[in-house]
């Protein structure tokens, strides 16, 4: 082997300098038995192979960083970084929204319920929520309407007005069915679905965990992600307190005292009820369904029953208030719904009542003509095309 190599070398070195262009037609000697490439040591081969496998396996490691799609700088954020450190990098944005283990990268779910469909009211709610939000891309609406997802026309109308929004229409039947099976007919008829629905919806739609429940006839001017980011600690519900309404104007304190002393139900307070407790504002709630008591619906229905509420359906039912008694986180007063009575109130408030014309359900369940408007604020939250699309 080495001898043939030597002879090839000597032939080449001998020939080249002497006759570089001589007889080009005569090829040089061909040596078929060239040495194979030097073989690397098996250990090195094994190491290299192992290294490639190692690189391949790296991709199976869990992701450690993510980028917020709405962040203009597309900064990489570690998944397990302290939530507060991230919020400082976002100039004091919302802390818990982007918490590491929060599913779906901090979507804010906004849920609403409407007994009779009124697209204009929904459009004002969606527009006000989106235009006040810092990250409108992360807002996801779930509107529970009589026809729900079967009503494609309404869905597309809303989609035309809010093309970039995440919104879904859901039916109400499953939620109503769950309430119906737990109640007698008289009780069922006396219930206000709009009030009870937020506590039943997460049992039907289990993917909804932490969400904001908002009455459709509100105009939201505060940032929903700030509300959604509030830490509920052990509570399942957060609500603002409305001290213009006191418990004793809805339920007789003596009757309530007697019930409290004689019952052993787990949801009744062990200490006497404070009779002038402020009522929670039920039209804007933050709910963490994972912490919601399984018996919550039962507790509400029980209170309705012991107070004979089906006999006097005209008055506001305190059953939900009693079921929530001492069990909800009190939101700051800024989240209390205000009446848009003056420009000053409107400017300062984070949430006000819808003041436009509104379709009211008749007692037959069919829609009536829209009532009169009480102000002009709502007009600011109707996209310009909405009259053509929704009809005026
Ligand atoms: C409810 O009605 C029952 C019988 O109709 C009566 O015994 C009870 O005292 C009533 N309860 C209240 C709180 O009014
Ligand atoms: C609603 O239905 C009732 C009975 O079905 C009917 O008498 C009433 O006129 C209807 N109202 C409207 C606004 O359609
Ligand atoms: C909300 O409505 C106003 C017009 O009143 C419009 O300028 C704005 O673009 C709308 N915002 C959204 C998110 O649709």
UniProtKB/TrEMBL annotation:
Gene3D superfamilies reported in the protein's UniProt record: Spore Coat Polysaccharide Biosynthesis Protein SpsA, Chain A
Localization per Swiss-Prot or TrEMBL: Membrane
Pathway terms, separated by semicolons: Glycan metabolism; pectin biosynthesis
Molecular functions per Gene Ontology: glycosyltransferase activity; metal ion binding
The keyword Methyltransferase belongs to this UniProt entry's keyword annotation: no
InterPro entries (UniProt xref): Glyco_trans_8, Glycosyltrans_8_dom-fam, Nucleotide-diphossugar_trans
PANTHER family in UniProt: GLYCOSYLTRANSFERASE 8 DOMAIN-CONTAINING PROTEIN, LIPOPOLYSACCHARIDE 1,3-GALACTOSYLTRANSFERASE
Record's protein name: Hexosyltransferase
Organism expressing this protein natively: Durio zibethinus
Gene that this polypeptide is encoded by: LOC111278715
